[in-house]
Amino acid sequence: MKRVVVTGIGAVSSLGNSFHESWTSVKKGLSGIAPLTRFDVTPMKWKMSGELKGFDAGLHLSQKEITHLDPFIHYAVAASFMAAEDAGLVSLSSVNSQQSNPPLPPFSKGGRRGIINSEISSAGVIIGSSRGGITTIERELEKIYASRITHHASRLSPYLMPSTSINMASSYVAQKLGIRGYCLGISNACSSGANAIGEAYRLIKSGYDGPVFAGGTEAPICRLCVEGYGVSGALSKRNDVSASRPFDKTRDGFVLAEGASVVVMEDYEAALKRGAKIYGEIIGYGNTTDAFHQTRPSAEGEARAIRLAMEEGGLSSENVDYINAHGTSTPLGDKAETEAIKLALGKRAYEIPISSVKSMTGHMLAASGAFEAAVTLMSIYEGVIPPTINLKTRDPECDLNYITETRKAEIKTAISNSFGFGGVNAVLVFKRV
User: Fold this and answer.
1) What is the mean pLDDT of the chain?
2) Cα 264–266–378 angle (5° rounding)?
3) Pick from 218, 263, 312: which is nearest to 124 by CA?
4) Of residues 74, 183, 222, 326, which has the active-site annotation?
5) What is the pLDDT of residues 79-101, one digit of tens each?
6) Most buried among 190, 205, 391, 403, by the most CB within 10 A?
């Protein structure tokens, strides 16, 4: 069995338009949550979101591509290019973008053309999304309703179907990077991004040459999603920047956010051979379903996923140095996760430092699991535990060691939790190399 390591990270989030920017903000305990600006929220109860700020899809896509593709694909492409560059799998050249293409597809960045290294052609891509192209679907539905009111025929975009399919994030990343290997789109609710990384881990571990680009992407800041999650009782009605407050007694729901995070994963020996920077190693993956309820979480099902990931990684509770919690800020979710950690780790659960990045980013759905996996890797790589912000009044039922201030710590092994509607649970275990 191959050892699987992470050699590149890319992301766009409410905290920054690169993973470096986002990670710097995470360490500072900054919030990316702000008033929702994409549409009129006056009649709505839910007015906060984690929107990207100043994101420029034109750094990676042509204007025609931007028009024809849903934003969830824009974000995936941007994160993937940044991950590829971070991993040393692409290099920038000064070749003019009007010149003929090199043998492998180029990409445009900052007026320069990026040359893709030959080893990337046999790579794989696995990217998850919960809502896919829902922003484009809403826009096209608005055309139909408007045409009925005005009695003017409205033609739907011929790109509606391809640009909204879940698989198009991974497929378009493959197209832009010239990847001709394994390709898979995953939709497993909010655990999709973590599942994508877990499935890529299994793929490489079982013999696939790689590298594999894996992660999650989401662009759900539209009326359908905000009202849909809102009426289900999942969103916070607190309309200020502290609305996302995981494990706090006053929490009342999550804040919807957008973004993408992609990591480059490859065989350890291959990474060493090409002199790649290694952030950490993936040693365990737990994937379970609760078989319990459509939306209510099960602590027992979550605990099984944690235990399975730990068992695969050969970890005992004494070996766990940090847990990056799912921590959405919902009353039921945070309570269930607290109980699950106790069930999986016993008395040791009370000693392990735990934090929730969603207190800063909001909930990016599928992208959150991938982004939090990347944050967990950086916690190991730099020896930093990020904070859970907005945790002021601790819930007596959430009584574990939730960290509220950034701290330095030696972290050899860490766990990242991701759970989703339908009782789907994905847990990843990482260790320092």
Assistant:
1) 93
2) 50
3) 263
4) 326
5) 999 999 999 999 754 333 333 33
6) 190
Is 20 considered catalytic here?
no
Instruction: Determine which one of 60, 74, 183, 190 is catalytic.
Output: 190
Rounded distance between C-alpha atoms, residue 58 and residue 70, angstroms: 14
222, 225, 363, 398: which is the annotated catalytic residue?
A: 363
The residues that bridge with 128 in the sheet, in sequence order, are 186, 216
Q: CA 388, CA 327: separation in Å to the nearest integer?
A: 9
Residue 63 in 3-state DSSP? helix
- Helix spans in 297-355 (H): 299-312, 331-345
Smallest Cα–Cα separation from 377: which of 273, 261, 269? 261
Buried b (16+ CB within 10 A) or exposed e, 418-432: bbbbbbbbbbbbbbb
Mean pLDDT over residues 70-74, rounded? 98
User: Contact at 8 Å (CB) between 215 and 367?
Assistant: yes
Share of residues in the chain with pLDDT > 70 (%)? 93
**Catalytic residue flag (residue 151):** no
How many Cα atoms sit within 13 Å of 185 on the Cβ side?
22
| CB of 123 closer than 8 Å to CB of 181 | yes
Give residue 105's pLDDT band: very low, low, confident or very high (50, 70, 90): very low
Q: Pull the structure tokens for residue 285.
A: 């993956």
Q: Which burial class, exposed, middle or buried, applies to 396 when counting CB atoms under 10 A from its CB (0-12, 13-18, 19+)?
A: exposed
Q: Would you call 190 a catalytic residue per the annotation? A: yes
